[in-house]
């Protein structure tokens, strides 16, 4: 099976390359420098030339706070870029698996968000990602949206790596405790996408539409940080851990408003063997890779 991957240098892109390495699939990966999805001609040429069996779009503008001032840049990638992929895929009858975000919701919920729940983004980033979902639905028949949240991995920049870096220099840290979500290991998300690709290869069908995929248990950023430090101490990544203080979102203002509650319900793909990842186990796996990457 020939898979076209965009965003190969991102967390998900790198993890997807890792999981595909042990398969017989032919993976054609592009970075943003190699394939700028903001340009329709570039996208059409790449898709036409490679003739993939399926497209996995992991390319995205993810600078949540910067997007508040750079809305054109966010929409160019997250909306127009997705539309270009959708049009090219539709022309050749190629399905797309596209990754979206919990930020399409306003965070005012009290129960896990279902894929069918009303969207109401409160940030430019969330609005641009929702616009991408809508462009995909408008211009492509065979598409699957996977909304995810709180992504971490041994690659790139993420909350886990930020906490470990700060722990090296500080004796105390204050972390927001009134925002709740489900941490998601990019490797688990990559394996979920691979399962979907394999299913499409076998059946030429998928559960088209919008779905959710994230870690299994909700926590706060404060709770996530506490778990990171505990596991890092056990593994010898940290000799000491900073004192953690729980603070409110009001005490840590950001340019872009964060959802207070972004827990996602991930039941719709269970029949295909796709289930939420155990983020506690995946965090341990991730930290071990960061400690001794040669072993892995």
UniProtKB/TrEMBL annotation:
Residues 1-290 form the RmlD-like substrate binding domain. One of its GO terms (biological process) is dTDP-rhamnose biosynthetic process. Keywords: NADP, Oxidoreductase. The gene is rmlD_2. GO terms for molecular function: dTDP-4-dehydrorhamnose reductase activity. Pathway: Carbohydrate biosynthesis; dTDP-L-rhamnose biosynthesis. It catalyses: dTDP-beta-L-rhamnose + NADP(+) = dTDP-4-dehydro-beta-L-rhamnose + NADPH + H(+). The keyword NADP applies. It comes from the Bacteria. Its EC number is 1.1.1.133. This is dTDP-4-dehydrorhamnose reductase.
């Amino acid at each position: 099976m020939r898979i076209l991957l965009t965003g190969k240098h991102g967390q998900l892109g790198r993890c997807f390359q890792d999981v595909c390495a042990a398969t017989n699939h032919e993976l054609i990966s592009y970075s943003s420098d190699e394939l700028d999805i903001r340009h329709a001609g570039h996208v059409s040429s790449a898709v036409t030339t490679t003739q993939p069996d399926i497209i996995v779009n992991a390319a995205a503008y993810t600078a949540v706070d910067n997007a508040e001032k750079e809305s054109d840049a966010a929409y160019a990638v997250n909306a127009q870029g997705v539309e270009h992929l959708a049009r090219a895929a539709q022309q050749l009858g190629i399905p797309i698996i596209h990754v979206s975000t919990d930020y399409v919701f306003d965070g005012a919920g009290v129960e896990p968000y279902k894929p069918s729940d009303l969207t109401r983004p409160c940030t430019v980033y969330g609005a641009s990602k929702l616009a991408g979902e809508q462009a995909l639905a408008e211009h492509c028949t065979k598409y699957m949206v996977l909304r995810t949240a709180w992504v971490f991995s041994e690659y790139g920049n993420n909350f886990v790596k930020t906490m470990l870096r700060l722990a090296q220099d500080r004796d105390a840290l204050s972390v927001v405790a009134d925002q709740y979500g489900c941490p998601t290991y990019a490797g688990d998300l990559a394996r979920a996408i691979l399962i979907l690709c394999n299913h499409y290869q076998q059946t030429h069908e998928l559960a088209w539409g919008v779905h959710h995929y994230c870690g299994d248990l909700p926590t706060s950023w404060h709770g996530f940080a506490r778990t990171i430090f505990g596991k890092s101490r056990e593994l010898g990544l940290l000799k000491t851990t900073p004192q953690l203080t729980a603070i409110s979102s009001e005490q840590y203002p950001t340019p872009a408003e964060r959802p207070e509650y972004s827990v996602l319900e991930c039941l719709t793909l269970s029949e295909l063997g796709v289930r939420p990842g155990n983020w506690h186990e995946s965090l341990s796996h991730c930290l071990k890779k960061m400690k001794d990457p040669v072993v892995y």
